[in-house]
Design goal:
With 445 residues, the protein is an alpha/beta fold. It is built from twelve helices and 24 strands.
């Protein structure tokens, strides 16, 4: 028996606390096991592919968060059936997705703050029959969409953006996209590549996509997209590092299990280094395309002892956190957590290759610099990153800037700096509405 509706119409989990949050300080070394919810990146990719599949599919242990709810609501608006069904995850139901014979328009889709929604849904709108207006939360209208608009126009999709090259815009869908050869500059976000690759199997002749820009951030996320397509029988060719050929095909409806979100595990593992003791994350995949999979290597460089046993990863804090100079271009979403760790290091740290995170939920580089300076730590912006100069810190306000990863970094700093107050912990609902409860449970062991 199914329960209609994967998400409330508000697209926001109702169990997430909101408002100011007094970040708890750790009074003893940690000794905790923390189970984290499913990957947002994988959940939203699998929702898209299930909606384009040849029949119903089941997504096991998906993430239930604001971003995944937005994706489900967007697909539902296009005529996809998204139902909750009983599952074994402690974080909520599994999700059954039934694709329609034809995606339908005549609607408006609000992507909220979700980059994956605005960039993964946009190509689907050309496949829909009818007009669809795509918009976003006021705080996310700045996020780059010009690359996607140009790409879809080059593929023949009719888009009315009022000349803004940004959200909101209206797609006049005709039920199909021819596809073919396409060149784009995806230097601003790998999500432009992933969004096109996910929809490409349903283009009339598939897609031969080339990235022509000087750099391509977050490459693991593109590998994640390619793996997700392969699991459903769509095999992407790679003639070169910045070139992808997707055949015209219909993805298979399947049962897909979602891995834990390894990037959301980052603050918990880092907590062992800040507070001392150890934190274990169970069900850590042996191999993963998630950027967070590189945490084990990175945290070791910073001085942690990292062990694997029985499918779990344990991080144990050492006597010292080392200052480092790292290029984070492939794992930029880990930047806020690593910056929080660097504030307690034995010397300055520089993180580069991350200029594109200025255009995430907020300008993450500016937000981190402002917050660190507000609690006494030295920090400065670099042309393509951030430099952290550890100094004795004190309590004070920590602004979330509507950004879940900025908020969790404030909680990390607060473990050793009493009096840190995050202005809105509710921003964590974007990818982990359970964050505050899991954080407190970690401290209680």
């Amino acid at each position: 028996m199914t329960t209609r509706g994967y998400s409330p119409t508000s697209a926001a989990p109702t169990d997430a606390p909101r408002g100011p949050y007094d970040a708890p300080a750790a009074t003893t070394p940690l000794s905790a096991t923390v189970t984290v919810p499913g990957s947002k990146s994988l959940t939203n990719r699998e929702l898209i592919l299930a909606a384009l599949a040849d029949g119903p599919g089941l997504i096991q242990s998906p993430l239930h968060s604001a971003d995944s709810y937005r994706m489900a609501d967007a697909l539902r608006a296009l005529g996809v059936t998204v139902d909750r069904v009983p599952g074994e995850s402690p974080f909520g139901h599994d999700v059954e997705v039934t694709p329609p014979r034809q995606l339908t328009g005549g609607c408006e889709i609000d992507s909220g703050q979700a980059g994956t929604v605005m960039r993964f849904i946009a190509p689907l709108l050309g496949l829909a029959d009818g007009d669809v207006r795509l918009t976003a939360d006021e705080t996310a209208l700045h996020r780059p969409m010009g690359t996607m608009i140009k790409a879809l126009r080059d593929l023949g999709v009719d888009i009315d953006d009022g000349g803004s090259w940004s959200l909101p815009f209206t797609v006049h869908g005709h039920g199909h996209i021819r596809g073919g050869e396409l060149e784009i500059d995806a230097s601003g976000s790998s999500q432009f590549v992933s969004g096109l690759l996910l929809a490409a199997p349903r283009f009339d002749v598939g897609l031969h996509l080339k990235h022509t820009g000087p750099r391509l951030p977050s490459l693991p996320h593109i590998e994640m997209t390619i793996d997700a397509l392969a699991r459903r029988g769509v095999h992407v060719e790679r003639p070169s590092a910045n070139e992808w050929i997707v055949p015209a095909a219909v993805p298979r409806g399947k049962t897909i299990a979602i891995e834990p979100d390894l990037s959301n595990a980052a603050p918990f593992l880092a907590a062992a280094m800040v507070a001392g003791g150890s934190v274990t994350i169970p069900s850590w995949p042996a191999h993963s395309t998630q950027p967070g999979g590189q945490l084990t290597e990175i945290l070791s460089l910073l001085g942690a002892r990292v062990t694997r046993r029985g499918g779990a990863v344990t991080v144990t804090g050492g006597k010292t956190i080392h200052g480092v100079d790292l290029d984070l271009s492939a794992v930029s979403e880990l930047t806020p957590t690593l910056v929080g760790l660097a504030a307690f290091a034995d010397g300055p740290s520089s993180f580069t290759g991350i200029g594109h995170i200025r255009m995430h939920e907020t300008d993450r580089i500016a937000a981190l610099v402002e917050n660190l300076r507000a609690v006494g730590c030295g920090a400065e912006e670099l042309p393509d990153g951030i430099r952290v100069i550890p100094q004795e810190m004190h309590g004070g306000p920590w602004k979330a800037f509507h950004d879940h990863r900025i908020a969790t970094t404030g909680a990390l700093v607060g473990l050793r700096v009493p009096g840190v107050v995050i202005d809105d912990i509710g921003t964590t609902a974007k990818t982990m509405p359970q964050f505050a409860g899991l954080w407190q449970g970690m401290l209680e062991g």
